[in-house]
Design a protein that fits this description.
The complex is a heterodimer of chains A (about 150) and B (about 90). With about 150 residues, chain A is an all-alpha fold. Chain A is built from 6 helices and no strands. Helix content of chain B is about 60%, strand content about 0%. Chain B is globular. The chains are: A mainly alpha (about 150), B mainly alpha (about 90).
Chain lengths: ~150, ~90
């Protein structure tokens, strides 16, 4: 039954992303709205961790650009922190601290900005297109999760 | 206004500010650093103890209370929870 998923996703900024993400999770049919939020946050955690690993792998590439390496390391850390923040929000949901859950997702959404900002500090460094895509991806996932939480009964 | 009410207010303000790109590197505002210090002392915690509670180095607390830290909503959230700040009632 997808009716709950559809109703829940209608209250989020990105319906298609919300629906496809939740629908593909095997536990979503049995989840309540809070459970759907947890699923979405979990997807965000996977995304953030994946990006952090991706950035770390780039550090292993041979390069003499020490500035780029420093910024990539900073970005890898930021995405790792985003994952941590999302983990905190799951704990907050479990404790029914919905205000903090919302805040920690907002924090997670901001870490990609910090990464992007790090690149901006050095005009000679181009912000990788694939990283821009990952940034948007994580932000949209966070927006969906925030939309779901915003409509919980709290 | 109780110090924690001020803290709550600042958290909300900060939450909004942090959504504005130009504020990514904003320093901790004076009111917030005072609120954190006051709330910590109200709970009779040292900087090291508070840092341990949020799983961070004592330097993080020092930087927040001295105003040297860059605003980080994740840290603020952790501090708020430990210090007992209720952010807001949604409804």
């Amino acid at each position: 039954d997808s009716s709950l998923i559809k109703r829940t996703c209608k209250n989020t900024k990105y319906y298609n992303l919300c629906f496809s993400s939740l629908k593909s999770d095997p536990s979503s049919p049995n989840a309540d709205p809070k459970g759907l939020a947890v699923i979405m946050i979990g997807i965000g955690m996977t995304n953030a961790t994946s990006t952090s690993s991706y950035l770390s792998s780039k550090l292993l590439s041979p390069s003499n650009n020490t500035t780029l390496k420093r910024v990539l390391k900073e970005c890898a850390d930021k995405y790792s922190y985003a994952g941590d923040a999302l983990q905190d929000s799951v704990q907050d949901l479990a404790n029914e601290a919905y205000d903090y859950a919302y805040m920690h997702i907002t924090a997670a959404k901001d870490y990609p900005n910090a990464c992007h900002n790090a690149f901006k500090r050095y005009p000679g460094l181009a912000y990788p297109r694939d990283l821009a895509s990952r940034e948007d991806g994580l932000k949209h996932i966070c927006d969906v999760a925030m939309g779901i939480i915003d409509n919980l009964d709290w | 206004m109780h110090i924690l009410d001020s803290y709550n207010m600042l958290c909300l303000i900060d939450g909004k500010l942090l959504n504005r790109r130009e504020n990514y590197d904003e320093k901790v505002p004076t009111e917030l650093k005072k609120a954190i210090m006051q709330a910590r002392m109200d709970k009779k915690l040292t900087q090291s103890q508070l840092a341990q509670l949020i799983n961070k180095k004592p330097q993080v607390i020092q930087e927040y209370e001295s105003g040297k830290a860059i605003l980080n909503q994740h840290i603020i959230g952790k501090l708020g929870k430990v210090l007992g700040a209720k952010l807001r009632d949604k409804k």
